[in-house]
Amino acid sequence: MFSCIGYAAESPKDALAPFTFERRDPGVDDIEIKIQYCGVCHSDLHTVRDEWGGTMYPCVPGHEIIGTVTRVGSAVTSFKAGDTAGVGCMVDSCRECESCRKGLEQYCKPGFVGTYNGPDKHIEGGATYGGYSSHVVVDKHFVLHIPKNLDLAGVAPLLCAGITTYSPLKHWKVGPGQKVGIVGLGGLGHMGVKIAHAMGAKVTLFTTSPGKSDDARKLGADEVVISKDAAAMAAQGETFDFILDTVAADHDINAYLGLLKPDCTLVQVGAPEKPLAVNVFSVIWRRRNFAGSLIGGIAETQEMLDFCAKHNITADIEMIKMDEIETAYTRMLKSDVKYRFVIDMASLA
């Protein structure tokens, strides 16, 4: 075991604060990483405040991790000390169920082990601690190669926001000649616009904020529709091949389902607190599909990173120091970030 420093919440009401803990030394299949950057995901805030239930305290969040390999186990050949490596939302899975055998670890039947707030099989009764820390030790299967041509801080959010949007766009075969809608321009939405544009689709952004129109076009949107404008929405009726909804607040999903062509799909990746109310006639009338998607498997995440390297895609970020995390959470709740916070972990010292 070796000592690490990080930031943790001790209860749902406590602010994140300095925290010292121990990590395991690398086993034969493990990789130890000194963390350089960690993205800030809305899931971090939900978890530390126990808004989804089941948080184990103390909680060290963070699952968008970029760093430098410091030690590797004897069976590790894919990385060596000094390499740049990444860790996303998962650090383990059963490896045996049908989903895992297909490379879909995110749909592991018993459940994947989260990078934080998951059951740590190496410590009886312990929980995994995430990337708001100096180091992390992870099984080699769940460690990713980071392309050399991309800004490392901007890569960090790709390990959650990037793969969350890439996976459904790839699965539903988005490409040239298709009209694709992205709902919402936040951490997820801005990545959806960039990736769909790079895939060759004609991209329309839907937003409630007219002030985001210029940003959307700079990111790759061909068109911007203000969703509060009923006439503008009606003009888009039954013209979309695919829609990716990234909004995590309550909204009228039927307004977007009605924009799909027959037999086409809307995929929900934003997770509103309350269930969305789907009018069955929104899907029955044109044989439309309403689906969901969760991150991606390890192989697909590596594929996403390589795709982003080819198209020079990173997240638009604001860098913060570790002790600014509570301010960042407050701003995130107000959607006051363009478009993802990333912690410079050198500030942890």
Describe this structure as you would to a colleague:
By secondary structure, this protein is α/β, with parallel strands linked by helices. It folds into two domains: 2-160 and 316-348, Alpha-Beta Complex (Quinone Oxidoreductase, Chain A, domain 1); 161-292, 3-Layer(aba) Sandwich (Rossmann fold). It has eleven helices and 19 strands. The chain has helices at residues 42-48, 98-101, 152-155, 161-171, 187-198, 213-219, 230-234, 254-257, 280-284, 298-310, 325-333, and strands spanning 2-8, 17-23, 30-39, 65-72, 84-87, 90-92, 113-114, 119-120, 126-127, 135-139, 144-145, 179-183, 202-207, 223-226, 240-245, 260-268, 289-292, 317-320, 340-344. The strands form five sheets. Strands 3, 4, 5, 10, 11, 18 and 19 form a seven-stranded mixed beta sheet that branches. A six-stranded parallel beta sheet has the order 14-13-12-15-16-17, with helices on one face. Strands 1-2 form a two-stranded antiparallel sheet. α4 packs across α5 and α4 (161-171) crosses α10 (298-310). The chain is globular. 45% of the residues are buried.
